[in-house]
Amino acid sequence: MPNTKSAERRMRNSARKQLGNRSVTSRLHTLEKSYLSLVDTGKKDEALQALRTVTSAFDKAAKTRVVHKATANRKKSRLALYLKKIK
């Protein structure tokens, strides 16, 4: 338990921020999985649209520092390579 009022406030703030960050990362995982399922089925047009959505979500998460910028860039690059392999 926190000993001071400021520590108590920090605990409340960090708990609130943790919930927000968890929802963002959960959404990222969901979008990534749905994109990969579209790639596996070979639906190129729908996968391209899903890639735009995933890329945008990773950029927004990196902007708010939920995900590190380099991690977001690496994931976006690898996801784009999957789309490139579809003929």
Describe how the helices and strands are arranged.
Elements: H1 5-41, H2 44-63, H3 69-85
The rough form would be described as elongated
The CATH superfamily is: Ribosomal protein S20
Q: Give the % helix.
A: over 70%
**Number of helical stretches of at least 4 residues:** 3
Low-confidence stretches: none
Mean pLDDT: 95
DSSP, total strands: 0
How can the largest sheet be summarized?
A: none
Radius of gyration based on Cα positions: 17 Å
Would you identify the CATH architecture? Answer: Up-down Bundle
Instruction: Report the CATH topology name.
Output: Methane Monooxygenase Hydroxylase, Chain G, domain 1
Secondary structural class: mainly alpha
Distance between the termini: 58 Å
Order of helices and strands: HHH
Number of domain modules: 1
Question: What's the level 1 CATH class?
Answer: Mainly Alpha
In short:
By secondary structure, the chain is mainly alpha-helical.
Description:
This protein is 85% helix and 0% strand. The protein is mainly α and 87 residues long. It has one domain: Ribosomal protein S20 (Methane Monooxygenase Hydroxylase, Chain G, domain 1), CATH 1.20.58. Helix 1 (5-41) packs antiparallel against helix 2 and helix 2 runs antiparallel to helix 3 (69-85). The longest helix is centred in the first third of the chain and has 37 residues, at 5-41. It is elongated. The model has no long low-confidence stretch (mean pLDDT 95).
